Queue: 3 jobs
Job 1
Amino acid sequence: PQEWIDRSSDFVFISGPKEIGCIEPILRECSYNRDSTSQILLSGIRLDPPGEMPVEDLSLRFGYDQRGGEKWTGECAACGKWMGAIYARLYRNNVRCRTMFYREWRRNMWEWTAFVAVFNLVGGVREMDTTISDVSRYYEQEASDLLWSISKFLRGYLAVTMTYGFEERIFEFADMRGNGEEYFYPNCEISDDMYRLYFDKFTDSQQFCEYLSLATERKMFGTEVVPDHVLKYGNGELGTRTSAMIDGNLRSDGKV
């Protein structure tokens, strides 16, 4: 409607929750990915159905940097025209929220998107139920390799440079908040919705596509959810590679 278009500068867009994921590609198509657009990243926050539990802040402090400043992970973040109002509303509900310029907010948003995508994919391809914490403790090398692979993709394709210490922040949050009780997902999840909201954002990373190919082989996606070009990029041809995924304590190539 025209009245909506006239007030487009007052729109507030949400990223982060499981049901929403990363919406930057949608905003880009509509030319809303700009400095003045109000956006909020709901990362370290529990959003229970209304009437059951109040909103709960899951962000945590995990130490101090070299200058003595506190190091936090899982904080919500806001940018754009209404970032002050967003901050005030979350503050009244005892939820930490940082306000920042769009460029910095975008880094935070992609860091969170990479975290959700990588940890759910690495844990979800297991034959047994795996939590986010399990991935950080037992499959740390796999998750780390994928995160750095995605970091290179973001820098090369989207001009986004992950901020210093991103790996430490991600693993701290996963270890402390990913036990299946305090996190968004009871266990790591691979589904058609997860592909659409998170996984398809990183299909230019060949290493990430290898995991998508493996998940497809194990029939964790619906029919034709993962495009053929993604499968071929990760595999060459389905069923022809030896997976480097850790099935236990060793890689399939024998390396610890």
Job 2
Amino acid sequence: MNDFWELEEHLITLNESNCGAVPLTLSIEPLSIIRFVLFTQFDQSMRKQEEWGTMSRHDNDVTKKIALESNILLLIVTMCVSSLHSVFEFLAIKNDVSFWRNRKSFKGLSLRTIAVNLYFQVIIFLYLLDSGAETSYMILIPAGISVLVDAWKLRKTMRIERDPTTNKLSFRFNSSYDEKTRSYDQQAMRYLTYLLVPCLIGYSIYSAIHHEHKGWYSFLVTAQVRFIYFSGFIMMTPQIFIN
């Protein structure tokens, strides 16, 4: 029996109200050896991905539904574009790590932007987690890696010091972060704060009034991530200002 194209939405929960009248349709037709092998291989691959946690049952159903309803040429193009996107994302992370790993001096770099970008990546990752089954692991895993990379970059550029008299911890940027760069970076970030904080508050109020949310946590995360997607490119401004 070929149940490869069986989706969760096709399943019917049996109870006392519908147990006596359940629609049943049987279709008998020959299946070539090649198609049988392909269906078997795809089914085993999807089950393995479910076991490994890289895909959920919902992701597999979406993949099957796309194959059923989409044009085969459009499907092939979409798969190629998705594969290229994954490759380019991996190369971008690899080059970013290589650049920061070999960096000894942070003169001319906006280190405050790194801290803000880490906050942005954490919010995006929390938003993807809050989306639940709607988010594929193929999206969630790179987002988690980006959080770790930004945290590593911030740890590389900052020092944690303890005051021996008060035992208080303080966070300071690396000594190679020269005073001139520090001044320009602080000035650019201050202007951005004056611009972005009122916009974020205004959008949060608008989102609370006009959008539906699962709860307060979902509201806080969703409002911030939508604002990040809208204004994230502005975070390039401090580095441009320093340059």
Job 3
Amino acid sequence: MAEDGETRVSLLSIREQSESHNQAALVSRIAFVGTTTQNLKKKGDLETLFQNFFRKHPPTEDRETASGLLLMLTNSFIAVVEHSSKVIAALMCELAEAPQDEALIDPASIRILVTTEDVPRKHFPLFVARAVALPRKELYESEPEDIEPVVSQVYLSLLTLGDHITAAFERGGDALSKALDGLRTSDVTAPLLPNDDTLSLLISSPELCTLDDFVALFCTEPNVVLDSELVWPPDNSEWFILA
């Protein structure tokens, strides 16, 4: 309990102050899948959607630049975003609140694969996007009883892709462009790319966190109840008493 004259400080305030004083900004990561809508006329418009959002949240002393990967398939996509937890939450809220007649992504289709705070390191040097369409098929005779192994495989493959992209980026020149253009043809990176069947399986899974679930957890102001507001016994004037 705070003594007289002391200022009460919330846990959130302490965390924000800690982050602001850290020399290295804390980075979070989210991976999610979803389907596009009929409003999407060109694949490039989906990349523009993400880039325009990141421009509204430029890097600062306590916030690094955006990094990650956007893979666009036939009618679906998968994205990995590395940024501060606040910017990631703002991105997901913006996707959830997009007007239906303008939305390029169907909010109801979005499934969160992984969300992690304070990751040890980034796996991507910057945010990049590519359209990929693979003839490779995944044979699912029936929906797996446990979706977790599929999620783990897809997620780890994306991080491995990020390491290959980072290596190309560090070589400089046009190495990055060549690496991105060769994602579908390289014997190293092509097996790491998910296909439409895999994304459809993830999007239809009832076990994964939906966008609504994410917004309720991270984008909704908590309803704080003080001890002084708790009354016992509760008012039973509206209780139904069964004889």
